[in-house]
Amino acid sequence: MNDKIKQESVIRVCGLKKYYKGGVIKALDGVDAEIKRGEVVVVIGPSGSGKSTFLRSLNMLEIPSEGQIFVNGVDIVGKGVNINEHRQKMGMVFQHFNLFPHMTILKNMTVAPITLLKKSREEAEKKAMELLEVVGLADRANSYPSQLSGGQKQRIAIVRALCMEPDVMLFDEPTSALDPEMVGEVLDVMKRLAREGMTMIVVTHEMGFAREVADRVIFMDAGVIIEEGTPAEIFDTPKSERLQGFLAKVL
Amino acid sequence: MQVWFAKFKADFKLNFIDSARWKWLMEGLGNTLKITFFSLLIGLVLGVVVAAVRSTYDKNKEVMAKHKGVGYYVFSVVNAICKLYLTVIRGTPVVVQLLIMYFIIFATSREDVLIATIAFGINSGAYVAEILRGGIMSIDNGQFEAGRSLGFNYVQTMFYIIIPQVFKSVLPTLCNEFIVLLKETSVAGYVGVMDLTKAGDLIRGRTFSAFMPLIAVALIYLVLVVVLTSLVGVLERRLRRSER
């Protein structure tokens, strides 16, 4: 399993803090983390623990109050960084899919590669169709998002991000808004992606997925990382009381 | 019955045929349409600019405040000016604005149609701006984040993702604003513009018969508004259909 993980770190986070309302609310209170190329990291924790804020900081959808985030060695929090270029290399999948309702599935997937990567229309559509084939939705290429089920929408959202050929994929509770019977189809796509060696950071409540797919699990609470380790370490021999309490509730 | 009909005919002749008074109505209608059309254009341009400034400021102030460049302060001032414009224009009657335009700001000019057009344009711009801003704000922030997360910059996200959706949702409201504008221009007579209302009133003053000219004016407005409203209805249905 571990030979797919390279020693080279893709993301390194140093002392990340995020305050709201002038410091009254501390969403992140000093987070340090490192993610290596090819690694699948699952972030778990109770709601309000800052795990989504942490994930969203990684592509600056949340502006950190303090700290640094190095992506491929460049501090993206610093001045004079073209954040848009970094985001092109970092795919993101949202809880509520956020497909563009006024575009067909194919257009959803090709608008960014054509506009930003200057791909030709044919090239972008070919790539999109290949990916649609992989997730079994090639026949929906010309549908609109409103015609799809939740599970289908989320699979499209994943391949839309993949169309930009990112280095890293961020998943923000990708199955939380789905009906239970649709969770599996989305997780299958994510598992496949993990097997192919994509660097992934996943915030989720799917403990089964974490145990099966993660190389490393991070447990967060109250804006800090409490414990991290392999799935076996986290789930079988939790050390901190807070993690034990959390697992007792969710498992 | 015949007596009544003869009286009606005589009345009609007196008010519209004699001295070719129908031409006044036509001229007034022409001015009304001219003022409405051009102030609509001014309003649209002003509205787009003000809405762009206001929503860009609201969406980006966190990022800009962090870097505190010169641009941030300039933008804050521009945003404050836009806010003041919206407050003043929406907080005072359009007739008062028109009078101020005519008797204070352009006191030396007698281009009454032009001044009225500018006054109504500036007035309409404030309402258009708020309609557009409301439309932008009503789009789920997730759409915005999805665009940015793919690597689109702010302007590209607006152009490819937000504006097309806003356009669909506000188009009927916007058209209704223009119908309101058409009726609002009827106060242009306050500064001596010979618009449709003023024309009817002038005829009344000449013929001392109020019924015919005023009802005619009302009917012309009504027909225009009904036609425009039904066009908006067609548009609305068509937009809704393309959503599926």
> Proportion of β residues of chain B?
under 5%
Cα gyration radius of chain A (Å): 18 Å
**Largest interface, by Cβ-Cβ below 8 angstroms: which chains and how many residues each?**
A-B, 28 and 24 residues
- The count of helical stretches of chain B stands at 9
- Output the structural class of chain B: mainly alpha
Shape of chain A: globular
What string gives the helices and strands of chain B in order?
A: HHHHHHHHH
| Mean pLDDT level of chain B | 90
Shape-level CATH architecture of chain B: Orthogonal Bundle
Give a count of the beta strands of chain A, DSSP E runs of length 2 or more. 10
- N-end to C-end Cα span of chain A: 25 Å
- Domain tally of chain B: 1
Structure in words:
The complex is a heterodimer of chains A (251) and B (244). With 251 residues, chain A is α/β, with parallel strands linked by helices. Chain A contains nine helices and ten strands. Chain A has helices at residues 51-57, 83-88, 105-116, 121-134, 150-162, 180-195, 207-213, 231-236, 241-250; strands at residues 9-20, 25-36, 40-44, 66-71, 74-75, 90-93, 168-172, 199-203, 216-221, 224-229. The longest helix of chain A has 16 residues, at 180-195. Chain A starts with 8 loop residues before the first strand and ends with a helix. Chain B is mostly helical. Chain B has one domain: MetI-like fold, CATH 1.10.3720. Chain B contains nine helices and no strands. Chain B has helices spanning 2-17, 22-67, 70-91, 94-105, 112-138, 141-150, 154-184, 196-207, 211-241. The longest helix of chain B is centred in the first third of the chain and has 46 residues, at 22-67. Chain B starts with a helix and ends with a helix. The mean pLDDT of chain B is 90. The chains are: A alpha/beta (251), B mainly alpha (244). The interface between A and B is medium-sized, with 28 and 24 residues.
